């Protein structure tokens, strides 16, 4: 088998219905205290939808429950396989999961897991020898889940930037598993290939990107960054007369990479994987978290060789957006490639209200974002976009004799990403885009940003609580005192199960970050979260007693 690299050439869940909202409309449930919380340690034996069919009788599908006199050749399952039919036991299994899904979506539960020891016990032990029946295995898995799930779909789950899952996303993702398509080339799944091509066209239009921009679907923003930065490296080295696919990096011409002070670690990780880790210089940022264009211009003027600039659209901690027009001008004036990590913030481009905060977005050469954050696709869905198709495809494409490519049939998804075999993510993405439409997506991001502003405003009124950066999009960054007090407040909130937040450090100061990225979260969730936050804050000391002084300006 021969393999050839690409070459240049011509050419909280307070309560959520399992029925998707009509016309993209969004709903928020009433206060959590109006309903009792579910016990996370509740045994699945108490859940009728996953209980054994008869007490004392092993579940269908259990080896112990099958008639021993049946041989493998004439067992019901083998007979179904021989006839090309589905075993009714398998359909029962799917019905059980569907019933549990309805129970899960309709049942309030604490935001944090409560029984990690039980979780470890349920999942642990030695690998079974003979194995267990399907229903018994699912019951064990669900019981472990009830002890160890983080309900990231909750309207008050604000840790990291996790997002939720729209009902249409869950339902369509079930179909993806049912159909089990390998979205590698057109021949392995025409459905996935065409869906991905349609999603590419829709997203380029939604984000207002240049005509001809291409898209690849990945596991997340990290691998989307990897594909885009590989394209940037390919472009800059090709301009210097170097074919990195054939000649490698050991003796290559220099490439300088300039990143913002608050660049996400995934971008730095990708640069290291690409052999550019020792060629990175950091651009200062202002107190608002935005890249300083003057410092960027100074570094760009001194940069040897090809230039790559990495900006941000919605930083992880405070949601800041770099001055995109200015950094695009500076980058392109020096012959550079501008890549924007827009893991979450890219979706703000769908809103006419929020789009002005992203002015200059279309000036970049490549972009990375996640569907599983603000678009609320089920995990996982990363999106790589590139306005320069040729270096993008050259950076990641390869051919092999056994692969039947789409020259005569259609688009090959693997030509636009690092992975070859991959889940048909485009189908879930297509379903959400088709269901929500432009206006539905705009409503989600506007609703979340409104809730974030409300939260920031309510909390900043409290003496001793300091808003460390303007609430630009959906991130709220707060200083509430020293590291110990900050951690105590976070632990109190998370252990109570009323909301989930995470700590961070901002310019040397302890901070709490609140990320609003769930399709259900609105102002009602913001009000309830503010009440819980202030109660925990007041519980752990007098206002302002632990405040630390900000560091001196580094510039």
Q: Provide the β-strand percentage band.
A: 5-15%
Number of helices: 15
Helical/strand content category:
alpha/beta
Strand count, sense and barrel status of the largest sheet are: 7 strands, mixed
Q: Biggest sheet, strands in spatial order?
A: 2-8-7-6-5-3-4
CATH architecture of the largest domain: 3-Layer(aba) Sandwich
What gross morphology would you assign? Answer: globular
Write the H/E string, N to C.
EHHHHHHEHHEHEHEHEEEHEHEEHEEH
Radius of gyration (Å)? 26 Å
Total tally of structural domains: 3
Rounded mean pLDDT is 83
Q: CATH class of the largest domain, anyone?
A: Alpha Beta
Question: How many E strands?
Answer: 13
Written description of the protein model:
Keywords: Aminotransferase, Decarboxylase, Lyase, Pyridoxal phosphate, Transferase. One of its GO terms (molecular function) is pyridoxal phosphate binding. The chain has 555 residues and is an alpha/beta fold. The protein is globular. It contains 15 helices and 13 strands. A hairpin with a 7-residue loop joins strand 10 and strand 11. The termini are far apart.
Write the layout of secondary structure elements.
Elements: E1 3-5, H1 76-83, H2 88-106, H3 116-123, H4 134-148, H5 167-179, H6 190-207, E2 214-218, H7 221-239, H8 244-247, E3 255-260, H9 265-273, E4 280-283, H10 293-302, E5 306-312, H11 324-333, E6 337-341, E7 366-370, E8 382-386, H12 389-396, E9 398-400, H13 425-460, E10 466-467, E11 475-479, H14 483-496, E12 502-506, E13 509-515, H15 523-539
Parallel strand pairs: 3-4, 3-5, 5-6, 6-7
Antiparallel strand pairs: 1-9, 2-8, 7-8, 10-11, 11-13, 12-13
